[in-house]
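Quick question, first post here. What does this chain look like in 3D?
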Amino acid sequence: MIQFGTGGWRAVIGDEFTKANVQLLTHALARKMQDEGKAEAGFVIGYDRRFLSEEAAKWAAEVMAGCGIPCAIIHRESPTPLIMYTVMRLGLPYGMAVTASHNPAIYNGIKVFMEGGRDADEVFTSELEGYIRMAESRERPIVELPEALAQGLVEYIDPMNEYIDNIMEAVDMKAIREAGLHIALDPMYGVSQTALQTILLTARCGVEVIHERRDALFGGRLPAPSEKTLAGLINFVIEHHCDLGIATDGDADRLGVIDDTGEFLHPNKILVLLYYYLLKYKGWKGSAVRNIATTHLLDRIAASFGEQCYEVPVGFKYVSGKMLETGAIIGGESSGGLTVRGHIQGKDGIYAGSLLVEMVAKTGRSLSQLWQEIEQQYGRCEMAERDYRFSQAKKAEIYTQLLEDKLLPTFAHEVDRVSYQDGCKVYFANGGWIIARFSGTEPLLRIFCEMPTMREADAEADCMQQFLGL
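> Answer (accepted):
Ran it through. Tokens below.
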């Protein structure tokens, strides 16, 4: 059974991620397009550097060709935001990325994008799962790729230059040129190097790149930017006296940043820095959107400028949807994904990284100085993050205890209210909070706790862990 989580469909290669399942999913999507009268509009497919990604893109294109739907394959390993941009620019109803994003190397998967290049929402994925069930018993016609190319049913395209130009038009390239910044890039063996390096070199930055080659095992590490996985970038920034280091996850929709002192900036800090920069230094006006497990420091900044911060469930489709509804200028998640109004309606680590460079150049202040400025005005928030694996029996036990019986531990801080919008989130009277929720992309229970000090955050996270018997 192919099921979509918060970031598309992901599965272990050779287990559920197989040629047959890729063809099944694509055939279901093709039938859905036909029923909606959108087949003639066409389709686009892109792929990252994971094992079997390019092959899977071809398998999907052969199915689309078999269904008579014109299909374009992006003829290079592509960042997910490039594929989203292409769906938007070409005015297509749907598009597809073959990627498992930041998941371990044994995974691959598929993300589907809707009109405008936005992430497929819950209504769409639920309907598509229904089409998948119907397609399981039906013949899946294909036209093999050489024949599909000869017939014009499939074509190769390369929209990278247009995507790069779009970003360069959105950031202040003049300010960056005048700053003379020295930047280290870490694509984490993924797909961001071409775009990011081109943008920064065009802006006359000094750029040095590590981990740029293709490695389907991602150097033996998880292709997700974190303090642990970016140890090499941290050392490089310190040793080479860089102004900042920028890393992206496997498909370049998430961002990791090392500041001028060699400190890893948590994605919460990146989101806060950019929102503060847009409001104070660029003079923008507008609200912010964050998911339920992202820092409430955004709320404080929004309130100080007479704006609002909206809370949504985990999953970027909820963030982008709320941004469209409210006209928010920025939206993001504590996992490292964010977007800014005026660009694509989804996560883009390449654009976010470029905007961070503009921020340093335009303010004339380092990232560490800008963060000190924010803390002086809004105080500190520290977050404890825990991941726990579990058996199916333990998952059922936790689900019953927390989400059905709605039992809670006795916390050290006074509880203000509790939300079950996405997992169990407890809001404390002092402005802190804790959430326990099951991951939508991995078999994990995640606990996040934000408090004024790390000691308090760890203590309440420990309390929840012990209560759940983890």
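The chain has a mean pLDDT of 95.
The first strand starts at residue 9 and ends at 12.
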